[in-house]
Predict the 3D structure of the following.
Amino acid sequence: MVVDDDLSILSSLKRLLSASGFHVKTFGSPSELLATDIPKTNACMVVDIDLPEMNGIEMCKVLKGSGRGLPTILITGKTDARTRSLAEQSDAVAVLFKPFEEEPLLDGIARAIALSTRDRSDI
């Protein structure tokens, strides 16, 4: 599951991840994701930190609070102190700064999916 308000990023990530063998669902806002069914296992999220409505970390907390959390890779184009602080406070599997290489993303996804097979109450 990929959440980013930049349609070109959503499109690029969907192509890359689909070509890598993943089933990909994309969302342009937190409300779109929050309104959908979240898989219980064998899934993860790639989430932009800077989203409309609420930031990506807040969205992940809402999901976790409702028992629908998934391991998450955070992505961002910002490197300011506030964004870095938010990222450090999260329990993300990885934090990637745009533009990022394919390999760190795929490595993060592999780790996140491995975690998603565990009990979701820890996520």
Remarks:
- Helices lie at 7-19, 30-34, 56-65, 81-89, 102-116.
- The first strand starts at residue 2 and ends at 3.
- The CA atoms of residues 44 and 70 lie 5 Å apart.
